[in-house]
Amino acid sequence: MTLDTIPTGLFFIATALYTASTVGYALYLFMQKEKMQHTALSLILAGFIFHAMGTLMVSVQMGTLPIHNLKETLSIAALALSGMFLVLKTKFNLKILGIFAAPLVALMMMAMVALPGAPVPAGSFLKGFWLVSHIILIFSGEAALALACGAGILYILQENAIKAKKRGFFFTRLPSLDLLDSTSYTCVITGFAMLTAGLITGLVYAKAVWGSFWTWDPKEIWSAVTWLVYAALLHGRLTSGWQGRRSAIMTIIGFAVLVFTFLGVNFLIGGHHRGFTM
Amino acid sequence: MKIDTSHGLSCEPYTAPHDNPCINRGTMPQITLIGINHKTAPVALREVLSFTGDEADVALRDLFQQPEIRELVLFSTCNRMEILFIPARGDGQDCVKTFISRFKSVPVEKFESALYIHTGDKAIRHLFRVACSLDSMMVGEPQILGQVKKSYRNSVAANTSGVILNRVMHKAFNIAKKVRRETGIGDNAVSISYAATELAGKIFSDISTRSVMLLGAGEMAELAVEHLISSGVKEIVVANRTFCNAITLAEKFHGKAVKFEEMEHFLKEVDIIISSTGATEFILTAPQLKRIMRSRKNRPLFFIDIAVPRDLDPDINRINNCFLYDIDDLQDIVNDNIEERNKEAVKGERLVDEAVIKFINWMESLEMVPTIVAIRKKIDAIAQAEIKKTMHSMPHLSPRDHEAIQRMTRSIADKIMHDPIRFLKNMGNHRDDARYLNAARHLFNLDHTEEL
């Protein structure tokens, strides 16, 4: 076994663990047995540990974070999401969010495993403090916003059940609207703060590399749009009481814009982040 | 499945060849249950026969004085009166009937037809079903177990329950807990008040930080809010057109009474509204509420409209963060849940059947012959195992030495067993065989797999 194959093996194990965790959460959703939820949580935690070890080894080998192509980018995004989920789960004990997080992480990992690794272009432009901070902050922020979207979707499902007076599948399984709403809000605040910091570090890095903070690059424009959507959501919430449904819809819209900024811009428009999704 | 536990039960299956099955055959104690419940007697009769708390205590001690009764537990709720006993001689049934008649001054003929008398496995099953709330008027209601436990505690305090009833009662508590844990029998709300509380729990994460406003101070409002209060809401506000009624009701809940005209102001502060006024038109309309929602920054409001005709505009339910349930919506939930509980009750019955079989097995083991056989088997097994061990480390012994050691071990074992077994065989004149058999089984740890 060469040094290169160890991380690959770790990623495979992590993918398997995430998939098992997804199955665990699905079973929990249907059968509502606490034990299943505990198992699923342990599995995603184990997956995260293997995943983080693999990523660490690759980073040490390359001397920087592995985000040179779509394969690596997806892996980092999945790592950020599972990590963020574990943090928020510990803090708020919102078990049900695993039903959203685990399958998303597992799907990203499967896509990651299936994708061929594009050759890493030579060059050292992906190094340095500002860039690493930019990457970590952006990915963690995006993970938190993904979870906000998950909580938003669950909110809408639960609200529909209550309004329709049909106490169906979701009504008994989902927690209170209150809890879903406040979780979503916390995720948005966390995500927005990190996104803001991540954008600032990105600007600083751009200044260092390209000599200018802002170059009207499509990625930059769409990042600004994403930021504005979430800023609008928080503003509405604080000033005009955009609680509940409206806030939930905004987290979903925000996340859609975010996904477009993350992947769509690169595929459809291009720009200086294009390499990350090759 | 039917298990015969009558006196004449044969002990052949347990009879080893060296036992004489004719010596003092086991006297299987016959668990008997006499009672009435909501299914067999109308409320008028149940009223007459039920025992209040103190009465039950007196009755318990009185009935236990009868020489026909060996062990006794008695319990009485508004829906049932049950007397569970082990007779000391005869079947004790007439004794109990006469006692009820004397204690309650009602002739036996008046209530005899409403009584049910179960013995053996049927009595045990009935007790288990009662404890599990499978026999309740509202299947799955949680109070009954507490009531049964309380009456058992009284029996323990009065020293009227012995080894059999102690065990059957403990088993009843265990199975009741198991049924509650493993089936959804107690899961769903089956009253309007419970349903409203359950819904509130799906809207607000912590009810204890929320306040309730009652519109109208009628009895319906009181009933509906009952369970919300017991789950601990922060504050109760009562608004009523007749202010003094508001005050009376507010005092009862340690709440605040307000004038009906102040309702709109308080709508900005409370979270749950229960409306039950006699108004013929809507007292709150959707446009009115939209305005209020703006001033309360869209914090969610949960409306429960139990008035007929309705008090609240149904369109309120379409406003963001407003949730409106009327009496029919709540009743639908309750009906669904009752159906759900009945389905779960089938599972409960299966668990009860299992527990009854287990208990009958234990009762049968309390017979003298199987106990003696089990003691013999155990000692023989120990002796054989020890001989084997010793022989293994002494290969130099001749076959004759072998035999001598065998003989010696067996005779030690026989001598040790002789007195205890003779004691067990001659128990006939003791008052309570079951107690000694139970002790013997414990001394020799014969039921090690089953905890008490």
From TrEMBL, chain A:
UniProt keyword annotation of Methyltransferase present: no
Listed GO CC annotations: plasma membrane
GO terms of molecular function: heme binding
Locations listed in the record: Membrane
Listed name of the protein: Cytochrome c-type biogenesis protein CcsB
Membrane topology note: Multi-pass membrane protein
Domain Cytochrome c assembly protein: 68-271
Organism from which the protein derives: Desulfocicer vacuolatum DSM 3385
Tagged with keyword Transmembrane helix: yes
GO biological process: cytochrome complex assembly
Keywords attached to this entry: Cytochrome c-type biogenesis, Membrane, Transmembrane, Transmembrane helix
Membrane-traversing stretches: 6-28, 40-61, 73-89, 96-115, 135-157, 183-206, 221-238, 250-269
From TrEMBL, chain B:
Binding-site list for NADP(+): 216-221
EC numbers, comma separated: 1.2.1.70
This protein's name: Glutamyl-tRNA reductase
Record's catalysed reaction(s): (S)-4-amino-5-oxopentanoate + tRNA(Glu) + NADP(+) = L-glutamyl-tRNA(Glu) + NADPH + H(+)
Native species: Desulfocicer vacuolatum DSM 3385
Domain notes: Possesses an unusual extended V-shaped dimeric structure with each monomer consisting of three distinct domains arranged along a curved 'spinal' alpha-helix. The N-terminal catalytic domain specifically recognizes the glutamate moiety of the substrate. The second domain is the NADPH-binding domain, and the third C-terminal domain is responsible for dimerization.
Any one GO molecular function term: NADP binding
Domain Tetrapyrrole biosynthesis glutamyl-tRNA reductase dimerisation: 349-446
